[in-house]
Amino acid sequence: MPNAAEQTSGSSEALLEVKPAELPRAALVGGNRSLSWITDKICGITEERAPAWWWWCFAAAAFVASFTVAGLTYLVATGVGVWGHRSPVNWGWDIINFVFWIGIGHAGTLISAILLLLRQKWRTSINRSAEAMTIFAVFCAAIYPLFHLGRVWYAWFLLPLPNSNEVWQNYRSPLEWDVFAIATYGTVSVLFWYVGMIPDLATLRDRFHAAGRGLRARIYGLLALGWRGSNRHWSNYEMAYLILAGLATPLVLSVHTIVSYDFAVSLIPGWHSTIFPPYFVAGAIFSGFGMVLTLVLPLRALYGLEDLITQHHIDCMCKVLLATGSMVGYAYVVEFLIAWYSANPYEGFGFINQAFGPYGWAYWVMIGCSVAVPQLFWSGKVRRNMVLVFILSLLVNLGMWCERSVIIVTSLSRDYLPSSWGFYSPSVVEIFTFFGTFGVFAVLFLLFIRFLPIMAVAELKASLPEAGPGARSGLPLAGSPGHARRSYGLMAAFESPKRVLLAAERVRDAGFRKWDCITPYPVRGLDRAMGIGRSRVPRGSLAGGIAGFCTGMVMIWFMDKLDYALAVGGKPFFSPLFAFPVSYELAILFAAFTTIGGMFCLNSLPKHYHPVLKSESIRRGTDDLFFIVIEKSDPRYDPARTRALLEGLGGAGIAELER
Amino acid sequence: MAKLFPKSANKLPVQIIVYLCVVGCIATAAAQYYMTPKYTRVGYAPMQPVPYSHAKHVGELGLDCRYCHSTIDTAGAAIPTSQTCMNCHNQLKAASPALAVIRESYQTGNPVPWVHVHVMPSFVYFDHSIHVNRGIGCVECHGKVSEMDVVTQVKPMSMGFCLDCHRAPELHVREKADVFNLDSGTIAATQGIEAARTFVKDWNIKPPVSCSGCHR
């Protein structure tokens, strides 16, 4: 086996010859901060007492949320007629708000998945809170279609469960595709969020444990599933995280595509358009980034996170707004072009009606806020003015709300027959319910910033400019020369990733098999230095994906063709075309499950008790130090000689672990 | 640093998974048994304002179903008026205290507050006449009412129950003379399935299985 170190040095020599141009890159963490500063900063938010503003905001949010509770209670008690929908406008604020919230939810997965694949490292400062935003937004969105059922306790009819009606769902309908898309999206988003949080939860666990706060240490401990920063775990973890990102990317694009099918597959002028999927996805990302800015800017100011969310981050987000806003504006223009070019009088009328009909005001707010406002972000002065950026981000979402209103209400209120035209205005119950969902969202988000790490601590550490070879941490701990009663092995601390990398190569070359590195973040090159091969997680993902897709196809064929052949609109009982969206979502869902399940199995987690977790040093291992652990069960292990080896490699604070 | 979790905690994940599987299986089985109309609806036998016994009137005395439920083969379900009862009971047991409610209804014209047993949801279109005129016997859905002292629901009357018959009518049809005979057998049982298929074909029985067949 060629030495890994030789390979790396060989490539760097080649680089020296070529002399690549140094590209100036903005620092992702300002102020030249250390690893432990990041830990202290983010974990401190959870550890300190809740600031006064938090309580005020929480009380206000809970009050606003009570409007949703009241609105929904009244609806359930009375009937869905309390919403102002009547023919021809059978979808009103409920679906506007559903699309509005789902759209907001898209930025989270975009930031965590697509930007990860595109190696946009600035995502690390905002991905955690954006993912939380996604989950809470999906939660708010799900309220609307569920309660639009009227009898919400029958919502389980949407799922393919055997029932006494002996009837199955109609998989030819995009509304049923929606069920699978939203459910998969919610589930995968939660998994992505949670899996990303595990190392940080472990950090919180060890900090609370060290501070003697046992209850919270145990709660975080349970959630951290016994994570100990083992590099063998990191290897599978990083692979699983990458695959999840790969799965979430087509997912995030498909979800809003399917939401747009709710409209595009119908025949209403103004809905029946092939431009809807890309136009909806761009709009969703646009509104989602607007919401991220709305949330992140106050957080940054209140918690003093200027070094973690730098001007560079805000610039990047503003530029995404500018790009997606322009795409949305382009889509508006193309819609008009299509309406004119198709020479369809209904289509043409529909668009003129959008701009100059009774709901014209919504159209012009939409144009103003969604097309004109983001153009201001061309100017660096605007991007540097935080108050202005905050206000503009609010306007973006106002514009996007109006866009959904224009699409849904304006199109429905005036379709083909003037005799069946109508006018819709929301009832008080609808207004209450919508107003309240901002409170629901805020309550959830405030709880999140109070109790969970609001930034991906481990990922931030990996993105530090000094991370990689050369980073230095504080003093290693004092070692203990004594022998543990029942020895597990030896643990040695290293102060920098570079040192642990070199030491790991030597331990590997010494022929040890049962040993591990403990690192606060995945150190690049450590897998190779330890001689760990490629992770086997992808095999499970592939199997899961295939199983999910086949499950979807077979399920739909069985339900709609074999078991209950239901004639709908002369469409075939089974066709892989209409079965595709649901099978696609199930492929992603199953693959996500097997990816995470496989990662846990390969890492044999959850494992809440482990000798390493018992040691004093683990608190630094999930913070800023790097360790090598050599197990006693390794055939080459010898207490004295192994200790000498670790000392020779520069290991400090060598201690024997108790089994 | 002391350990946060005991060693036994490492067994917990597997234990929890096994536990959840067991609970899941029990919950599924329980829901299947207790939460379907086969359990929630079958056996419903409400107390009626008048202790009218079908076993006495139909089983022993031999009244035809249609004597009281007179519009069943032309229009739909009909609960008899107190007039129908009084046809006999103005002579028989005319002073019985059990019949006080009937007599009062007869005099005032207010209906007897019978309790609805076989409740059909309002979003289902159901017409008795087409069923009894195409060989579906009373006993098929209502059971042997002729043996009941108190009318009891014996079939789940779920949508699945309807569909079972709508999908395979040949298993449930009987000779038209037997429709009101609660002791008769289906054609499939007495003459074989071929005869039943011929009956279905001859009488052009095409029960709808589309949504709008029943949810109009």
Describe the structure.
The complex is a heterodimer of chains A (659) and B (216). With 659 residues, chain A is mainly alpha-helical. Among the domains of chain A are: 269-414; 470-534 and 607-658; 537-602, no CATH class. Chain A contains 23 helices and four strands. In chain A, strands 2-3-1-4 form a four-stranded antiparallel β-sheet. Chain A is globular and about 95 Å long. Chain B is extended, with a radius of gyration of 25 Å. Chain B has a domain at 119-214. Chain B is 43% helix and 0% strand. The mean pLDDT of chain B is 91. With 216 residues, chain B is mostly helical. The chains are: A mainly alpha (659), B mainly alpha (216). The A-B interface holds A 163-167, 205, 209-210, 214, 217-218, 221, 226, 566-567, 606-609, 613-616, 618-619 and B 1-10, 12-13, 36-38, 156, 158-161, 163-164, 209-211.
Rg over alpha carbons of chain B: 25 Å
Largest sheet of chain A: 4 strands, antiparallel
Amount of beta strand of chain B: under 5%
Low-confidence stretches of chain A at least 5 residues in length (pLDDT < 50)?
1-9, 467-471
Main β-sheet of chain B: number of strands, strand sense, barrel status?
A: none
Q: How helical, in percent, are the residues of chain B? A: 40-55%
Number of strands of chain A: 4
Average pLDDT across residues of chain A? 89
Low-pLDDT sequence parts of chain B: none
Oligomer: heterodimer
> N-to-C terminal Cα separation of chain A, in Å?
34 Å
Work out the radius of gyration of chain A. 28 Å
State the shape of chain B: extended
Distance between the termini of chain B: 71 Å
Strand content of chain A: under 5%
The spatial strand order of the largest sheet of chain A comes to: 2-3-1-4
